[in-house]
Amino acid sequence: MLSRLLRQFLFTLVHLVVSVLVAVQNVYLRIRTQYNDFSGGEEAANDVEVILRHIPYIIKKPKHLVILTDMTQHTLKDLALVVIWSLVAGVPYISFHDVTGELKENETKLFLEVEKCKKGVPGCIKWSNRPNLNGYTNGIQAHTITINVFTASDGRPKIAECIRKIANNELNCKRKTNEFTAQEFDEVLRQFYPSIPDPDLVMYTGSSCRTYGLLPWQIRLSEFVQLSLDQCINIQCYIGALYKYNKCDQRFGK
Amino acid sequence: MSWIKEDAVSFFQLFCIKVIKTGRIPQHIAFIMDGNRRYAKKHHEDTAVGHSKGFEKLSETLKWCLDLGVPEVTVYAFSIENFKRSAEEVDALMDLARDKFQKLLNEIDVINEWGVRLYVSGRLSLLPVDLRKMVSHAMLATRHNNKLKLNIAYAYTGRDEISRAASYLVDGVNNKELIVEDIDEELISQSLDLGEPELLVRTSGEVRLSDFMLWQVTNSVLYFTDVLWPEFSIWNLLAAIIHFQRHAPPSKYEDSSSEEKKQFLAKLENRRWQQLELFLNC
Fold first, then answer.
1. Disulfide-capable partner of A123 in A87, A197, A198, B157 (CB 3.0 to 4.6 Å)?
2. A185 located within any domain
3. Among B23, B164, B183, whose Cβ lies nearest the Cβ of A180?
4. Higher pLDDT residue, A50 or B166?
């Protein structure tokens, strides 16, 4: 009895101490990022200069960046700015994985917000779901970025749908032995997704990392990089995350 | 070096384990045991030495998990992609596996006493015949144990696992054991070799899944740590569990399978064991 109480007390104590340490670390990191503040301004126009200054040092740029989006924590403005920064940085595909389902409903609002932030920034923004709204290019060397919004229903349920269709003989598929190989199944499953590269970088905010059902088939080699310990998204942590990704060396299998 | 290291825990460590056990313990932990080669390089040793140190660490970790009361552990031992490594290294890894499975078969009584159920998940047809035989033997000999399920992902990738499950389900429909509408997320989850881990730990500072348990990690807490696998200590494990206790989503257990689905899954399970018996007797 006594020992159980003691254990429970120590357990609570351990967790309390960890909470305090994490809080101290948060404060320290926040002070450090403020100290390292190299942007000088907050608006998109200045952010562009900041990114252009850093981009020559970033050798390995992601082809497809995914942001784990929680609309209870992030604002549309945060997301719109990430689109602009990625456009300037030369990331060709950006996707938002909508954890709460709110972004999917507000995709039009995100579109308007992106258009608002884009003013004066060269480049072309394409929307996978709204090809008719796709913007125009101004400037010759401008980048193009394609935006997708995914939810958990694009993950497991799509794979289930694919298997149902195969079972129903609605799809043409090769199967050389009794069991599909990953390549054979991949060829069939591809038809259910836009033809974009697999995500190579997934950014998340907060201290805990989970996939929340993000495209299980496609994330096999994605790197999960923390954007910020608290939930904020700003230019410093964005560039910091790109640097972190840059340092990861990939040696899959070998 | 045996499969479960008995003297892996000091009195003080056991006390700490007991304290942490007061809280929620993940019911299934998955490990990506990364860093064996970097460890060997760091200590100017042969890569084979690194891998063998890695196995030692696994047996220690199993003991810690038994003490913590974790009922299921899955480890990523060898990926299908690893066949692309140098022939020398692949051979050394296969020899290591032969050696370890032979040891396991020799000390099968001890394993049964501990109650460890061994399950090797992966495309076993890719393994050398003798190794496949040993693996099948070990699985069949421990299949009724239930204290700790140890799943070893060997010749495994997550995509391959999903593809194989897809084949079983399509066959199920073709054999009239299932109707097309039965195929849903839940049934796919149940047709896979491996269950969903509540916590996934990857060592050595890499921050990707490398094609491991892609389907299953949807709700798992991912924990990445910089320590190399052979240097992984009980304190690293306890830190991972404290992290899990702080961030775990509420666990949900619901089984709404219909009778047909259950029958299909029972048949699938049966076919798996029959296949293993075939491997053993070939």
1. A87
2. no
3. B164
4. B166
What CATH number is attached to the domain comprising A149? 3.40.1180.10
State the pLDDT at residue A250.
45
What is the amino acid identity at position A23?
A: A
Poorest-pLDDT segment among A8-22, A139-153, B21-35, B160-174: A139-153
Residue B150's H or E segment, with its range, is strand B148-156
Residue pair A217/A191 in contact by the 8 Å Cβ criterion: no
CATH 3.40.710.10 fits domain B11-159+194-257: no
Give CA–CA dist B194/B150, Å, rounded.
Answer: 10
CA dist., res. B87 & res. A84, Å (int): 47
Mean pLDDT of B48-71: 92
Which pLDDT does position A200 carry in this prediction? 94
Nearest CA to CA, how far is A107 from chain B (Å)?
24
Query: What is the DSSP code (8-state) at residue B208?
Result: B
Position A100 in a domain: yes
A239 is a domain residue:
yes
Structural domain span for residue A207: 44-153+198-247
Q: What are the boundaries of each domain within chain B?
A: 11-159+194-257
Contact A220 B210 (CB under 8 A): yes
Determine the distance in angstroms separating the CA of A160 from the nearest CA of chain B, rounded to an integer.
5
Q: Do A11 and B188 touch (CB under 8 A)?
A: no
* Nearest residue of B to residue A203, measured between CA atoms: B207
All residues of chain B having their beta carbon less than 8 Å from the beta carbon of residue A209 are 221-224
B81·A253 Cβ contact <8 A: yes
Closest CA to B67 of B4, B109, B123: B4
| Residues A193 and A158: beta-carbon distance below 8 Å | yes
pLDDT tens digits along B10-29 = 889 999 999 999 999 999 99
User: Residue A164: inside a domain, yes or no?
Assistant: no
What is the structure's pLDDT at A39?
47
A159 close to B (CB below 8 A): yes
Report the distance separating Cα B43 and Cα B53, nearest Å.
Answer: 12
Q: What is the ipTM of this complex?
A: 0.92
Dist. CA B237–CA B65, nearest whole Å: 9
Nearest to A159 among B188, B245, B246 (CB): B188
Domain count, chain A: 1
**Residue A169 in tokens:** 């003989």
